[in-house]
């Protein structure tokens, strides 16, 4: 036990003292925040731009219906001859809406043209079409003798009230939130496995290329060395995550309060937005309640359990690969089968869990030990039967023990083998030494 | 005499390949024991088994009379052929770590380390990283790390390969000194000069089998050829040669001398040295008379080629 502790300590210190660890730890949250601020800034910048669209409407029906808003201003060029209007629009405006004179107003459904240099976005086409649709519908209604304003008043906007069988209120979009939370945890596990698994592998290769390995294994059992390495590295990783969480939290808090002060009084809020905000405010308590109703305890406990199982399972494979090869470049061939199930887990998680969290595919992948740490965590926010959880964890830890045994065999032989890159067949042979 | 190490019928197989075929050795306490053999003979396999890095498939190993067990790790100091240190770790920390892995306490390791650093005059290296040191400097550290925990048995696999001559000599002297203080030493090598110079006992392993084992002088006696090199100043060369060929087989010899004498190699056959000497003395002035003692190199090559 004393020896294991020594190894863990050395591995931990070696990782933490490494310059790249320090740089990564403190720089990456800053980078993340800077990046997201930059993206937000870019998005805002785009929003502030007003596109100017000219309109030439000899029929006179539509030109008053295109009303200026935050994003678009309409300039009426009907006074000019069409040719000149086109030239002006080409020079100074984004495009020109051309409404021809028609005998029957309903012909306009097909005859309105939009002339522009760049093809317009889907959104702006829909916006224009909506204006035409509304105008023509109202016109038609009037022709048929209906009172358009009364019809507008009679229009309803329904909102289905979601209630669980247990009688509690619930809210829409919850699925997305659940998938979001589950995905975040699953993704975190995957990232951790890849980053720190690689670190374990590199550390094994380093000992091999330094030729210190034989000296070490003459003092400790290879299994102890492997275990110590995996644990020490994971502790360094956990420290890094903790620092990220704290630093990231502090920065985010600082930034949001700063932003709040800046934008609060100057922001111009349209009545529409106010309305939206109020609606959201109304459902906000429900969202919060729902979040609290998520199996948070289960989620956190499972995260820890799956994290340990998944990380140890994969990192012992990484250690075995590190032992089998002489340099990192040789490791690619063996790494592929490790990365594949991780990727599969994430994609299966994203696509199937979202659609059907308790479907066959999602359930099966949350049982297979190589993908279960990711997929099961994505499923947990939707509520997973206890027996499935237990079965999945038992499978994971059973496999974990088998894989550690198998990896330590390869590790034991591999660390003392130099020269040729082994083939799969040779790796299999090593198991029997 | 007590044995520090006894290897009894050890077998080791890798798949279908037999690396050690029922090998037995006896390493006397306080000896310098040369483990010889060509590359791939099984020396490293045997050493790894003694160091408990791998397990034998059959056979037994006794260290100081006890069956080998994990607590013996601290009894042995091992410098493998493939050796190195953590490049980015500081010298002092690294040595302490390795000593602690061998079961030494932190304080004791520090004390010993100070002793060795002073002895080699390298106190200033404590906080240096291995990658900042030259190769020769790193080799000194490598040796210190091997002996730091005061092992009773020191196993050195090709100890002088990769060492420059100055360091090799320094290490050689340290090894002799440790041996005088009672440390038993096993040398695994195919460099015969160092064996000739330092070892009291040797064993030869070839193709997974032990072929020879014993005290170096005994082994040499066994391999003596009964041939003598003689040098003689004589006026009667033809007569002397005629007389000699009546009793002995003679050939040409080549050794350095200041005279222009007749140099011969004489196979005694069934006659004694004195009979040869008498005959020579009757015919002139004897300037040179030595037995052809087989070198370890000769024995090695002879045994290995005979075997093939």
UniProtKB/TrEMBL annotation, chain A:
Transmembrane segments: 21-43, 184-205, 226-244, 291-314, 334-354, 361-380, 386-407
SUPFAM superfamilies listed in its UniProt record: Periplasmic binding protein-like II
Localization (cell): Membrane
Name of the protein described by the UniProt record: ABC transporter permease
Annotated signal peptide: none
One Pfam family of this chain: ABC2_membrane_3
ABC-2 type transporter transmembrane domain segment(s): 19-408
Topology within the bilayer: Multi-pass membrane protein
Keywords: Membrane, Transmembrane, Transmembrane helix
Top-level taxonomic group: Bacteria
UniProtKB/TrEMBL annotation, chain B:
Record keywords: ATP-binding, Nodulation, Nucleotide-binding, Transport
Any coiled-coil regions, as ranges: none
InterPro entries given in the database record: AAA+_ATPase (IPR003593), ABC_transporter-like_ATP-bd (IPR003439), ABC_transporter-like_CS (IPR017871), ABC_transporter_ATP-binding (IPR050763), DrrA1/2-like_C (IPR025302), P-loop_NTPase (IPR027417)
Domain ABC transporter: 5-232
GO molecular function: ATP binding
PROSITE patterns documented for this protein: ABC_TRANSPORTER_1 (PS00211), ABC_TRANSPORTER_2 (PS50893)
Family (UniProt): Belongs to the ABC transporter superfamily.
Record protein name field: ABC transporter ATP-binding protein
Organism: Flavobacterium luminosum
